[in-house]
Design goal:
The structure holds 2 protein chains of 2 kinds. Chain A is of the alpha+beta class. Helices cover about 65% and strands about 10% of the residues of chain A. Chain A has helices at about 1-20, 25-50, 55-65, 75-85, 90-100, 110-120, 120-130, 155-180, 180-210, 215-260, 265-275, 315-370, 375-395, 400-405, 405-415, 435-455, 485-495, and strands spanning about 280, 290-295, 300-305, 420-425, 460-465, 470-475, 500-505, 510-515. In chain A, strands 4-5-6-8-7 form a 5-stranded mixed β-sheet, covered by helices on one side. In chain A, strands 1-3-2 form a 3-stranded antiparallel β-sheet. By secondary structure, chain B is of the alpha/beta class. Chain B contains 10 helices and 6 strands; from the N terminus they run E-H-E-H-E-H-E-H-E-H-E-H-H-H-H-H. A 6-stranded parallel β-sheet of chain B has the order 2-1-3-4-5-6, with helices on both faces. Chain B is globular. The N and C termini of chain B lie far apart (about 35 Å). The chains are: A alpha+beta, B alpha/beta. The interface of A and B includes residues 380, 383, 413, 418 and 458 of A. Chain B: It comes from Lentzea miocenica. Chain B: InterPro entries: CheY-like_superfamily (IPR011006), NreC/VraR/RcsB-like_REC (IPR058245), Sig_transdc_resp-reg_C-effctor (IPR016032), Sig_transdc_resp-reg_receiver (IPR001789), Tscrpt_reg_LuxR_C (IPR000792), WalR-like (IPR039420). Chain B: Keywords: DNA-binding, Phosphoprotein, Transcription, Transcription regulation. Chain B: This is Response regulator transcription factor.
């Protein structure tokens, strides 16, 4: 594509400089700038938005602009080609403006407008070449004062048709801009206002020619049309660069979300996407005509972003991915807190229904024993049971062996108390970091409880390995399969920076495997 | 018989001292931490030390460590570790291959003065004492194709009492059986589990515990 850009640019330069006519430096520069700006911006746009053919149309505008420069070559054929294609670029430009941003004709009126626009250019120009008295090749490219006795009738018709068409296009673009949402307005802004400026100057130039303004004024207007023509693709390029800035904002968003979920996630995302109408919907989503992008993590839909459909889908997906990670972490943190709270409630219940209850009856029985000493035996038995309850409770809250003796003894103790037969296949000889040992222990404890409750397993095999700081805990049973309730484990392993995988198929048992890196102490 | 006591809970320490005194023991020292106990043992070795597993400064296994230290430096002193944990791991830490005169008992057992006094006497005499709760954990473990299933209920009872470190004589008294019957049960247990009878009671305890722990 770069070759197209440089090649056509060079050909145009050659035509202007060595074509045979005297062409001023500003004219060369401006002519080259218009064509190169359109082709360059078109290549960039085609590359960035493969879903749209607007880029290809911009390239076509640039090429049409260069083709008419053939008229700068002092030669009969070149002159004919130059005249025939002199106004073609305006038709292509109209085509582009009518169909922006998709570049595709989607309605009847668009087809009519674009068709008429093309008819008014090459066919009319060719007819003029054939019918009118043309006095040999002359420079038709360079803007200069032409003292013509009057505008031919055909030209009047063509110009009026052009004015009508272009004015309609102008009105249409402005109403479209007014009707758009803020996102589309932001996208359309450079296109609409740049396009409007071009159309306006062309219309004014035509009107000036029609009403016979002095040639000096007409020359000025033609120059300004060309200047505006350079500016428009540059405005479009600015739009594209802004899109790139928007995308770098996604990176900044990821960094800022990495530090934690903001109080008002919605407005942060709305700011990043420049869409004040953005909504975050958790749970069921009502059907909507607006754009919907899901926040997904690990194959689960966490929430949906409901946004202006005009937003760049790549940009929204990037923002959604960052937000999904942050939301997932938040939910995980929330679940960890909830699990801790639930554990506290459970401890409270166990204390209340167990030891506390027994101590109350001890108190009561002691009172009765004042008159019936034989009740003291019952007191002792009840106290012993209260002690058992407390001991079991303490064990469940935190296994003292884990810190005192390490993972191996702690796991063996679990195995000895397991409700399902369990075998400790292997445990690292060396001590791991406290957090790693805790993670291993609770993974095994939870997986054992699950296996005992749901798996109908005959035996559970437990193996912990640590190779080069990579810890793997594997608990596999020979039960009925179909694992459940490992969410808390998932969070615990994720908190240690690792991952938990559960493989389970009906009849083939369940294997819970946690892998994480043990950070050096 | 001279007993030294180490426990950081003063009330409990005094209570145990009282129970032991009432049972005819001479409580020669009462200390609140492991360092105090070790100093005392070096200065004037008692016959038995009764030590809490969890003491200052770390409140982890200071008492158990001190007990092991005493077992090494003064093999003829009996050590009885009192603990709140039903953990075979701690109990077995006391029992090396030629262990003698060592015991691991739940603190709750002090409620039965006779049981405490019996344990102190047994470790003083070089025997081994393993808390029934610890033994119950070992015996109650779920196993695939559990060899213990092949034992009769009586045989399992005999196995458990053996694991607690009791002699045949004690088993007779506990289970109300004649010496001959007990011997027959013991032989049958060892045959069914494929164990060899050791030359003495302590070896027998170690063999049974090792079997239950594997």
């Amino acid at each position: 594509m770069r070759i197209l850009w440089l090649g056509t640019g060079f050909l145009a330069l050659a035509a202007l400089v060595w074509g045979g006519y005297e062409v001023s430096v500003p004219a060369v520069v401006l002519n080259l700038a218009v064509g190169l700006a359109f082709i360059g911006a078109g290549i960039e746009a085609a590359d960035r938005r493969p879903d749209s053919v607007a880029g290809q149309l911009m390239i076509a505008v640039g090429l049409a602009w260069f083709v008419r420069l053939t008229g700068a070559i002092e030669n009969d054929v070149a002159f004919a080609v130059g005249v025939a294609t002199k106004t073609l670029y305006l038709a292509v430009l109209g085509h582009l403006l009518v169909t922006y941003p998709s570049g595709r004709i989607t309605s009847r009126w668009q087809r009519v407008v674009v068709g008429v626009a093309y008819l008014l250019t090459v066919p009319v120009n060719v007819a003029w070449l054939l019918l009118a008295q043309v006095g040999g090749p002359q420079n038709i490219v360079v803007i200069r004062e032409v003292l013509s006795p009057g505008v031919p009738a055909v030209a009047v018709v063509v110009m009026i048709s052009g004015i009508v068409l272009l004015s309609a296009l102008l009105a249409r673009m402005i109403t479209r801009w007014l009707r758009s949402g803020s996102v589309a307005r932001r996208d359309l802004g450079p296109v609409v206002w740049g396009g409007a400026a071009i159309v306006l100057t062309v219309v004014v130039t035509y009107v000036a020619a029609l009403i016979g303004l002095p040639p000096a004024v007409q020359v000025l207007l033609q120059w300004s049309t060309e200047i505006v023509l350079v500016g428009w693709p540059l405005a479009l390029l600015y739009g594209l660069v802004r899109a790139r800035l928007d995308r770098s904002a996604v990176g900044e968003l990821a960094v800022s979300l990495g530090a934690g979920l903001p109080d008002d996630l919605r407005s942060v995302l709305a700011r990043t996407l420049h869409d004040p109408s953005l909504e975050i919907v958790y749970g069921e989503l009502a059907p909507t005509s607006r754009g919907v992008t899901y926040l997904e993590a690990g194959g689960t839909r966490l929430a949906a972003l409901v946004h202006d459909p005009a937003l760049d889908p790549v940009l929204v997906r990037g923002v959604a991915a960052s937000a999904a990670l942050a939301v997932q972490n938040e939910m995980r943190a929330q679940r960890i807190v909830e699990a801790a709270d639930e554990a506290r409630r459970q401890v409270e219940r166990d204390l209340h229904d167990g030891a506390q209850q027994r101590l109350v009856s001890v108190l009561l029985t002691l009172r009765l024993a004042e008159n019936a000493p034989e009740l003291l035996v019952a007191v002792r038995e009840e106290l012993a049971r209260a002690l058992d309850d407390l001991r079991e409770l303490a064990r469940g809250i935190y296994p003292v062996l884990l810190t005192d003796a390490g993972l191996g003894p702690a796991l063996l103790s679990l195995v000895e108390r397991s409700a399902v037969a369990a075998m400790l296949v292997g445990v690292p000889e060396e001590r791991l970091s406290p957090v790693a040992e805790r993670t291993c222990y609770f993974v095994v404890a939870e997986a054992l409880t699950n296996a005992a409750k749901h798996a109908q397993a005959r035996e559970v095999r437990i193996e912990v390995t640590c190779v080069d700081g990579r810890v793997a805990v594997e608990v596999s049973d020979d039960g009925i399969g179909g694992a459940s309730g490992v969410r808390a484990l998932d969070d615990r392993v994720a908190a240690a920076g690792g991952r938990l995988t559960v493989t389970s198929s009906a009849g083939c048992g369940t294997t819970v495997r946690a892998e994480f890196r043990d950070l050096p102490r | 018989m001279r007993v030294a006591l180490a426990d950081d809970a003063a009330l409990f320490r005094e209570g145990v001292a009282r129970l032991l005194t009432d049972a005819g023991f001479e409580v020669v020292a009462k200390v609140g931490d492991a360092a105090g106990l070790l100093a005392l043992v070096h200065a004037d070795p008692p016959d038995v030390v009764v030590v809490d597993i969890r003491m200052p400064p770390g409140f982890t296994t200071e008492g158990l460590d001190a007990a092991q230290e005493i077992r090494r430096t003064h093999p003829d002193i009996g050590v009885l570790v009192l603990s709140a944990h039903v953990e075979p791991h701690y109990a077995l830490r006391l029992l090396d291959s030629d262990a003698r005169g060592a015991g691991y008992l739940l603190k709750d057992r002090v409620a039965d003065a006779a049981e405490l006094a019996d344990a102190v006497r047994r470790v003083a005499a070089g025997g081994l004492v393993i808390d029934p709760g610890v033994v119950a954990t070992l015996v109650g473990r779920r196993r695939v194709d559990d060899p213990l299933e092949s034992l009769s209920e009586r045989e399992r009872e005999v196995l458990a009492v053996m694991a607690e470190g009791r002699s045949n004589q004690a088993i007779c008294e506990r289970l109300f059986l004649s010496p001959k019957t007990v011997e027959a049960y013991v032989r049958s247990v060892f045959t069914k589990l494929g164990l060899r009878q050791g030359p003495d009671d302590n070896r027998r305890v170690l063999a049974v515990l090792a079997y239950l722990r594997r």
